[in-house]
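Recall that a protein's primary structure is simply its ordered list of amino acids. Everything else, from secondary elements to tertiary packing, is in principle encoded there. The following example makes that idea concrete.
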Amino acid sequence: MKLYKTTITPISNFATTLKGDTLFGQMCWSIKYAFKEEKLKELLSGYEDSPFMIVSDGFASGYLPKPKMPSLLLGEISDEKKQNRKKIWLTVTQLQNGEFVQAKTDKEVNNNNKTAQVVRNSINYKTFTTTDDGAFAPYGEKELFLSSKDIYFLIDETKFSLEELQKSFEQLSLHGYGKDTTIGKGRFEFKEFKEVNFSNESKTFMTLSPFSPQGLECKEIYYEPFTRFGKLGGDRAFKNAFKKPIILADSGSVVHFESKQNLQYIGTAIKDISTAHSDTVHQGYSIVVPIKELS
Protein backbone atom coordinates (compact mmCIF):
# COMPACT_ATOMS: atom_id res chain seq x y z
CA MET A 1 0.00 0.00 0.00
CA LYS A 2 1.10 3.57 -0.66
CA LEU A 3 0.72 6.57 1.63
CA TYR A 4 -0.22 9.97 0.20
CA LYS A 5 -0.72 13.38 1.75
CA THR A 6 -2.66 16.38 0.54
CA THR A 7 -3.33 19.77 2.10
CA ILE A 8 -6.83 21.22 2.02
CA THR A 9 -7.74 24.90 2.24
CA PRO A 10 -11.32 25.50 3.42
CA ILE A 11 -13.31 27.97 1.30
CA SER A 12 -16.37 27.86 3.55
CA ASN A 13 -17.15 27.20 7.19
CA PHE A 14 -17.45 23.58 8.38
CA ALA A 15 -20.14 22.03 10.56
CA THR A 16 -18.28 18.76 11.23
CA THR A 17 -14.74 18.16 12.50
CA LEU A 18 -12.24 16.41 10.21
CA LYS A 19 -12.07 12.90 11.66
CA GLY A 20 -10.69 10.00 9.63
CA ASP A 21 -13.64 7.64 10.06
CA THR A 22 -16.10 10.30 8.92
CA LEU A 23 -13.86 11.22 5.99
CA PHE A 24 -13.77 7.56 4.96
CA GLY A 25 -17.56 7.38 4.92
CA GLN A 26 -17.80 10.59 2.89
CA MET A 27 -15.21 9.26 0.44
CA CYS A 28 -17.27 6.10 -0.05
CA TRP A 29 -20.22 8.24 -1.14
CA SER A 30 -17.91 10.20 -3.45
CA ILE A 31 -16.67 6.95 -5.01
CA LYS A 32 -20.27 5.90 -5.62
CA TYR A 33 -21.12 9.22 -7.27
CA ALA A 34 -17.90 9.34 -9.32
CA PHE A 35 -17.62 5.67 -10.38
CA LYS A 36 -21.08 4.17 -9.76
CA GLU A 37 -22.31 1.85 -7.00
CA GLU A 38 -20.80 -1.34 -8.44
CA LYS A 39 -17.28 0.08 -8.04
CA LEU A 40 -17.90 0.87 -4.37
CA LYS A 41 -19.38 -2.59 -3.71
CA GLU A 42 -16.32 -4.17 -5.31
CA LEU A 43 -13.96 -2.11 -3.14
CA LEU A 44 -15.86 -2.89 0.06
CA SER A 45 -16.21 -6.61 -0.65
CA GLY A 46 -12.79 -7.41 0.81
CA TYR A 47 -12.61 -4.54 3.29
CA GLU A 48 -12.64 -6.75 6.39
CA ASP A 49 -9.47 -8.59 5.33
CA SER A 50 -7.70 -6.03 3.16
CA PRO A 51 -8.78 -2.35 3.23
CA PHE A 52 -8.56 -0.51 -0.10
CA MET A 53 -8.25 2.89 1.63
CA ILE A 54 -7.65 4.30 5.11
CA VAL A 55 -8.07 8.00 5.85
CA SER A 56 -6.50 10.11 8.61
CA ASP A 57 -7.89 13.05 10.54
CA GLY A 58 -7.12 16.59 9.39
CA PHE A 59 -3.99 17.98 11.08
CA ALA A 60 -2.29 21.37 11.32
CA SER A 61 -0.32 21.74 8.09
CA GLY A 62 3.19 20.29 8.51
CA TYR A 63 2.48 18.68 11.89
CA LEU A 64 1.03 15.61 13.59
CA PRO A 65 -0.65 15.36 17.02
CA LYS A 66 1.18 14.80 20.28
CA PRO A 67 0.83 11.17 21.46
CA LYS A 68 -1.88 10.51 24.03
CA MET A 69 0.44 9.19 26.71
CA PRO A 70 0.96 10.14 30.38
CA SER A 71 3.05 13.28 30.95
CA LEU A 72 5.76 11.16 32.60
CA LEU A 73 6.33 9.20 29.38
CA LEU A 74 6.26 12.40 27.34
CA GLY A 75 8.91 13.99 29.55
CA GLU A 76 6.62 16.86 30.51
CA ILE A 77 6.62 18.70 33.83
CA SER A 78 3.59 17.22 35.58
CA ASP A 79 2.79 20.45 37.47
CA GLU A 80 2.29 22.33 34.18
CA LYS A 81 -0.88 20.49 33.15
CA LYS A 82 -2.63 23.56 31.76
CA GLN A 83 0.30 24.50 29.52
CA ASN A 84 0.87 20.88 28.48
CA ARG A 85 -2.73 20.51 27.29
CA LYS A 86 -2.22 23.39 24.85
CA LYS A 87 0.99 21.98 23.36
CA ILE A 88 -0.39 19.47 20.89
CA TRP A 89 1.62 19.58 17.61
CA LEU A 90 4.89 17.87 16.66
CA THR A 91 6.78 17.25 13.42
CA VAL A 92 7.35 13.69 12.20
CA THR A 93 11.05 14.05 13.03
CA GLN A 94 10.29 15.14 16.61
CA LEU A 95 7.91 12.19 17.04
CA GLN A 96 10.47 9.70 15.80
CA ASN A 97 13.24 11.22 17.93
CA GLY A 98 11.06 11.29 21.05
CA GLU A 99 11.24 15.08 21.35
CA PHE A 100 7.73 15.26 22.79
CA VAL A 101 8.52 18.25 25.02
CA GLN A 102 9.03 20.32 21.85
CA ALA A 103 5.28 20.22 21.12
CA LYS A 104 3.79 23.53 20.00
CA THR A 105 0.45 25.24 20.51
CA ASP A 106 -2.15 26.05 17.85
CA LYS A 107 -0.97 29.66 17.88
CA GLU A 108 2.67 28.71 17.37
CA VAL A 109 1.90 26.64 14.25
CA ASN A 110 -0.74 29.05 12.87
CA ASN A 111 -3.50 26.50 13.31
CA ASN A 112 -6.17 29.16 13.49
CA ASN A 113 -9.36 27.27 14.26
CA LYS A 114 -12.34 29.12 15.65
CA THR A 115 -15.76 27.94 16.77
CA ALA A 116 -18.90 30.06 16.64
CA GLN A 117 -22.44 29.39 17.82
CA VAL A 118 -24.97 30.06 15.07
CA VAL A 119 -28.66 30.57 15.87
CA ARG A 120 -31.10 28.87 13.52
CA ASN A 121 -34.77 28.06 13.35
CA SER A 122 -36.67 25.14 11.82
CA ILE A 123 -39.40 25.91 9.29
CA ASN A 124 -42.51 23.83 8.70
CA TYR A 125 -43.00 24.29 4.94
CA LYS A 126 -46.61 23.12 5.10
CA THR A 127 -47.62 25.93 7.43
CA PHE A 128 -44.64 28.29 6.86
CA THR A 129 -44.28 28.63 10.61
CA THR A 130 -41.46 27.56 12.87
CA THR A 131 -43.46 24.94 14.78
CA ASP A 132 -46.88 23.31 14.56
CA ASP A 133 -48.29 25.84 17.01
CA GLY A 134 -46.54 28.80 15.38
CA ALA A 135 -44.17 29.42 18.29
CA PHE A 136 -40.68 30.79 17.77
CA ALA A 137 -38.20 28.00 18.62
CA PRO A 138 -34.60 28.93 17.80
CA TYR A 139 -31.71 26.54 18.39
CA GLY A 140 -27.95 26.84 18.29
CA GLU A 141 -25.39 24.94 16.21
CA LYS A 142 -21.60 25.12 16.10
CA GLU A 143 -19.73 26.27 13.02
CA LEU A 144 -15.99 25.78 12.52
CA PHE A 145 -13.61 28.24 10.89
CA LEU A 146 -10.61 26.12 9.88
CA SER A 147 -7.14 26.89 8.60
CA SER A 148 -5.29 24.62 6.13
CA LYS A 149 -5.14 20.94 7.10
CA ASP A 150 -3.02 17.94 6.08
CA ILE A 151 -4.91 14.70 5.37
CA TYR A 152 -3.24 11.32 4.76
CA PHE A 153 -4.60 8.53 2.56
CA LEU A 154 -3.25 4.97 2.57
CA ILE A 155 -4.45 3.17 -0.56
CA ASP A 156 -4.04 -0.22 -2.19
CA GLU A 157 -3.34 0.83 -5.77
CA THR A 158 -4.14 -2.64 -7.10
CA LYS A 159 -7.75 -1.88 -6.13
CA PHE A 160 -8.00 1.91 -5.97
CA SER A 161 -5.62 4.05 -8.01
CA LEU A 162 -4.21 7.49 -7.23
CA GLU A 163 -6.24 8.90 -10.14
CA GLU A 164 -9.43 7.43 -8.67
CA LEU A 165 -8.51 8.86 -5.26
CA GLN A 166 -8.01 12.32 -6.75
CA LYS A 167 -11.29 12.21 -8.65
CA SER A 168 -13.23 11.00 -5.60
CA PHE A 169 -11.67 13.64 -3.35
CA GLU A 170 -12.45 16.34 -5.90
CA GLN A 171 -16.06 15.15 -5.86
CA LEU A 172 -16.07 15.52 -2.06
CA SER A 173 -14.48 18.98 -2.20
CA LEU A 174 -17.23 20.23 -4.52
CA HIS A 175 -20.11 18.52 -2.71
CA GLY A 176 -18.90 19.50 0.75
CA TYR A 177 -17.87 17.58 3.86
CA GLY A 178 -20.05 16.83 6.87
CA LYS A 179 -23.29 18.47 7.94
CA ASP A 180 -25.10 21.31 6.21
CA THR A 181 -23.52 20.84 2.79
CA THR A 182 -26.86 21.85 1.25
CA ILE A 183 -26.33 25.37 2.60
CA GLY A 184 -22.72 25.59 1.49
CA LYS A 185 -20.74 24.18 4.43
CA GLY A 186 -17.68 21.94 4.16
CA ARG A 187 -16.27 23.20 0.83
CA PHE A 188 -12.52 23.18 0.28
CA GLU A 189 -9.71 23.22 -2.26
CA PHE A 190 -6.80 20.78 -2.14
CA LYS A 191 -3.22 20.51 -3.34
CA GLU A 192 -1.53 17.76 -5.32
CA PHE A 193 -1.25 14.37 -3.61
CA LYS A 194 2.36 13.62 -2.61
CA GLU A 195 3.71 10.21 -1.65
CA VAL A 196 4.96 9.94 1.95
CA ASN A 197 7.22 7.35 3.58
CA PHE A 198 7.33 7.13 7.38
CA SER A 199 9.86 4.23 7.48
CA ASN A 200 7.41 1.93 9.21
CA GLU A 201 9.60 -0.36 11.38
CA SER A 202 9.40 0.13 15.15
CA LYS A 203 8.08 -1.31 18.40
CA THR A 204 5.95 1.79 19.04
CA PHE A 205 3.38 3.43 16.76
CA MET A 206 0.94 6.34 16.95
CA THR A 207 -2.45 6.32 15.21
CA LEU A 208 -3.72 9.08 12.91
CA SER A 209 -7.46 8.48 13.28
CA PRO A 210 -9.90 6.76 15.66
CA PHE A 211 -9.56 2.97 15.43
CA SER A 212 -10.83 -0.28 16.89
CA PRO A 213 -8.20 -2.10 19.02
CA GLN A 214 -10.36 -5.23 19.21
CA GLY A 215 -8.18 -8.33 18.82
CA LEU A 216 -4.96 -6.32 18.78
CA GLU A 217 -2.09 -8.22 20.39
CA CYS A 218 0.40 -5.77 21.87
CA LYS A 219 2.39 -5.16 25.03
CA GLU A 220 0.89 -1.78 25.95
CA ILE A 221 -1.63 0.69 24.56
CA TYR A 222 -2.27 4.28 25.59
CA TYR A 223 -5.44 5.96 24.35
CA GLU A 224 -8.41 8.18 25.06
CA PRO A 225 -11.84 6.67 24.31
CA PHE A 226 -13.87 8.21 21.50
CA THR A 227 -17.57 7.46 21.16
CA ARG A 228 -18.95 7.68 17.65
CA PHE A 229 -22.67 8.27 17.22
CA GLY A 230 -22.68 7.67 13.47
CA LYS A 231 -25.30 8.57 10.92
CA LEU A 232 -25.92 7.34 7.39
CA GLY A 233 -25.66 9.85 4.57
CA GLY A 234 -26.53 10.16 0.91
CA ASP A 235 -29.64 8.27 -0.19
CA ARG A 236 -29.59 6.28 3.06
CA ALA A 237 -30.20 9.32 5.26
CA PHE A 238 -33.99 9.13 5.07
CA LYS A 239 -34.84 5.86 6.83
CA ASN A 240 -33.30 4.64 10.10
CA ALA A 241 -30.36 6.94 9.49
CA PHE A 242 -28.73 6.54 12.89
CA LYS A 243 -26.05 3.89 13.34
CA LYS A 244 -25.38 1.99 16.53
CA PRO A 245 -22.94 3.85 18.81
CA ILE A 246 -19.40 2.47 18.88
CA ILE A 247 -16.41 3.15 21.14
CA LEU A 248 -13.02 3.64 19.49
CA ALA A 249 -9.52 4.56 20.60
CA ASP A 250 -9.05 8.18 19.54
CA SER A 251 -6.42 9.63 17.22
CA GLY A 252 -2.97 9.92 18.80
CA SER A 253 -3.25 6.53 20.53
CA VAL A 254 0.07 4.78 21.13
CA VAL A 255 0.54 1.04 20.62
CA HIS A 256 3.72 -0.67 21.88
CA PHE A 257 4.74 -4.20 20.83
CA GLU A 258 7.16 -6.71 22.34
CA SER A 259 9.29 -6.80 19.18
CA LYS A 260 9.78 -4.64 16.10
CA GLN A 261 6.94 -4.56 13.62
CA ASN A 262 6.70 -3.25 10.07
CA LEU A 263 3.24 -1.69 9.98
CA GLN A 264 1.40 0.84 7.87
CA TYR A 265 -1.91 0.50 9.69
CA ILE A 266 -3.65 -1.26 12.57
CA GLY A 267 -7.25 -1.94 13.55
CA THR A 268 -10.17 -3.73 11.99
CA ALA A 269 -13.31 -3.13 9.96
CA ILE A 270 -16.51 -2.57 11.93
CA LYS A 271 -19.77 -4.06 10.67
CA ASP A 272 -23.30 -4.67 11.97
CA ILE A 273 -23.77 -1.03 12.96
CA SER A 274 -26.99 -0.30 11.05
CA THR A 275 -30.38 -1.89 11.61
CA ALA A 276 -31.51 -0.82 8.14
CA HIS A 277 -28.53 -1.77 5.95
CA SER A 278 -26.53 -4.93 6.59
CA ASP A 279 -23.73 -3.92 4.20
CA THR A 280 -22.78 -0.78 6.16
CA VAL A 281 -19.14 -0.67 7.27
CA HIS A 282 -17.19 1.73 9.45
CA GLN A 283 -13.48 2.52 9.28
CA GLY A 284 -12.00 0.88 12.36
CA TYR A 285 -8.53 1.03 10.83
CA SER A 286 -5.92 3.73 11.35
CA ILE A 287 -2.76 4.73 9.54
CA VAL A 288 0.18 4.59 11.97
CA VAL A 289 3.44 6.51 12.24
CA PRO A 290 6.43 4.95 14.05
CA ILE A 291 7.58 7.03 17.01
CA LYS A 292 10.41 6.82 19.56
CA GLU A 293 10.29 3.36 21.04
CA LEU A 294 9.14 2.95 24.63
CA SER A 295 11.65 1.10 26.80
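The longest helix spans residues 20-35. Residues 114-143 form one domain.
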